Structures
1.
Amino acid sequence: MFSSNDKISSRQIKRLLVFDLFGAASLLLPSQLAKSGNGIGIWSILAGLVFAGVYLWLLNTCCCRMSSDYMGYLETGWGSFLARFFYICYALLSIVTCAWAAKLLAELMCGTLLDSTQFPSALLVIVLLALYGASAGMEARARVYELLFWVLVIPLVILLLLCVRQVQVIQWFPMLGESDAISWSWFWSGTWQCFAAFLPVTFVVFLVPHVQDFKKAGRAAAGAVALSGAALFVLYLILLGIFGSGALAKEQYPVITLMGMVKIPGDFLKRLDAVMVGGWFFTLYALIGTTLFYGAVIMRRAMTGREAAGFSKQAWFFALAAAAYAIAFWFHLSPNAEVSAMKLFYLAGVPFAVVVPVVSFFICREEAG
C-alpha cells in the first residue's frame, strides 16, 4: 500500500528529473547545436554537463544547510524582503517556462497528430491536465512517472539501437568544426544552451520539505543529470551521424523526424513518428506539471509567508494555470514575443538562477537541525 505523506523517494526524484531534463532538450538542442559546425556541439554538451554537475553540487550544499525550507535559508543572509522577491522571481520563471513548454507540446501535437486550427483546444487540454496533476501534489505525480519510466525508456532505447546502423561516423568530423581553430563563440553559446537545459535541477532546493533523506535525494539528482546528459550526448551523435550538421540544423524536431525513418522489422507499424510523439508528450507534460506545481507553491509561499490550506491552495493553481495558458497562447500568436522571452531567459533568467545560490553559499548560514 502506498503512503500518503507528501514525501517522495530518491528513486522517484531521479525519474521525475530525467523526464524534466530530457524532454525539451532532446527535441530542440540537437538542431541548435548543429548550427555551430560538425563536432563542436559534442563538446558543448559535455561542457554543459560539467557545469550542471557543479551547479547541482552547489544546490545540494545549500540544501544540507537548511533547517526548514529555501525561503528560511535565504532570509538568514538576504533578509525577508529580498527572500520574498527572489521567490517571486523563481515563480515567474517557472510559470513562463510552463507556458513555453505547453506551447511547444501543443504545436508538436498539432503538427503531427492534429490540425493547426486545433491549437487553442489542444493547449487548453494540456494545461488542464497539468493543473490536475499539479494540484494532486508531489507524491501523486511521482508515482505516475515512476510507473511510466521504463514503459517509455525501453522503446526509445530499442528504436535508437535500430538507428545505429544508419550512422555515418564521418559526419562527426571535423570535431572542432569546419575551420582549423575552435569557434569559441559557437562553443560557449552551445554550452550556455546545454547548461540552461539542465536548469530544472534548480527545483532541488524546493524539494527539501518533500524528502526524508536529502543525502539520498542529492545522489538521485546527480544520477538524473548524468543519465540525461549521457542520453542527450548519444542522441546527438546518432542524429549528427545520420543527418549531418547541415541537414540537422534545418530540422525543427530532428528526433521526431528520426523516429519516422526507423523501419521496424516486419513493417507492421506505420507512422512511428506519430506514435513516438506520445513518448515526448509525457516528457514535456512532466516539465509542464513540474513548473506549474513549483510556480504555484513558490508564489504562494512568497505572498503568504506560510503554507496556507484549503481553497487558497487550489486558487493559486487555477490562477497560475490560467496565466500559463494566456502566455502560451501569446507565444503562439506572436513568435517575436517568444524569441524575446527566450533571450531574456538566457540573459537574465539563467544568471539569476545561478547567482542567487552562489551568493547564498557565502552569506546564508542557517544550519540544518
2.
Amino acid sequence: MKKKRLAAGALALAVSITACGCGEQLYELTDEEEAVVVHYATRAVTKFNKRQSEGISDVTMLKARMQQEEERRKEEEQKEKEEQQKQEAKQDENKDNSKTESGRQPDQSQSSEQPKIDYVSLGQALKLNGIEAVYKGYEVTSTYMESASYMIRANSGNELLVLHVNLKNTGNKKAKCNILSKMPTFRLNVNGDLNVSADTTILLDDLGTYQGSLKAGAAKKTVLVFQVKEGTVKKVKSMDLEVTINGTGSTVQLVSD
C-alpha cells in the first residue's frame, strides 16, 4: 500500500513539473539544492524499504565475524608457538643424549681398566715402629695346631686358609709390640674374586691379638686364620691383605702373578 502511494506521489510530482514547464525554461538546481533533494529521496526510499538490511551491513554480524577472525588468528599463532616449543625441546633432548653417549665412552674405557692400588708394607699397615712384619707364605688345611694343647678346626664344608707372618725387632734394643691395642681388622682378597675376613681366635700367635716384647734382632711367628669353602683356593695368582685400623684402610700385596 505504501509503495503504491509512493509511486502515485512521484507520478503527480512529475506531471506537475511537466505542466508547469510548458513554454518555460526548466529550473536548474544548484549543487546544494541537488544534494538536499538526493538526501531527502534516499531517506524516503530507505524508510519504506523493508529489505534495507540486505543492502547495509549489519554491524553486529560484522563485529562477530571480525571476532571470529581474531580468534582464528590467535589459535594459529598458538599452534605455531607450541610446535616451535616442541621442536626446541626435541633439539635439547638430542643434545643431552649426544652428551650422555659421548660421556659414556671414557667411562666404559675406564671401567675396563683395573683401578691403581697404592700398596704399603705390612709393617706400615699395622703402624709398627721398630718392628718389621714379613709375610712368609700360606697353607690351606682342615685344622691348625698352635701347640699340642690347642687346635682349630674348620667349620663343616670349609677349609682354613692360614697366613704366616714373622714379626722381627729390627732395632738394637728390646721393643714392645702391642697389636691388640690397635684393634685391627683383616680382609683377604684372593685372585680378585674371593673376599674373606679373618677369624678372631684366642691363639697366642694370632697376629691381630699379639702382645709381647721382642729382644733386639729377635723374631716371633704369628698367623692369620681365614675360613673358605672347600676347593675354592687351589692355585693362588694374587693375594692382597686389607688392614683397617681406626677406620683407615691400607692394602698389602702378599702374592703377585
3.
Amino acid sequence: MPSILYEIIDVFASLLRFLGLAVFGLGFGWLALDLLKKSQLWQVQIAVFLGLAGLVIAMTVFTAWGALGAVAAGIGVAIIIWGLPKKGKTEEPG
C-alpha cells in the first residue's frame, strides 16, 4: 500500500484516540465529582483525589502528551459543568 494511506489512517487513529480519551476524562471527572459530593467520609474523598492524581501521573509517564491533554480537558469540562455551584435565577425588577 502507498505510504500516504498509512499517514491518513494514522491521523484518523490519533483523532479517535483524542476524542475517546476526552470522553473518558469527562466520565472520570463526573464520577470523581459525584463520589466527592455524595461521600461523607474523608477517607473516601482522599481515595478519590489520590485516584484522580494517580491517573494523571500514570498518564504523564506512559502515554503521549495529546492523550494526557485530552483527559485533562475532559476532567476540566466535567468540573466546569458539574462541579461549580449553580447560580439561582434572579428576577429582574420591572
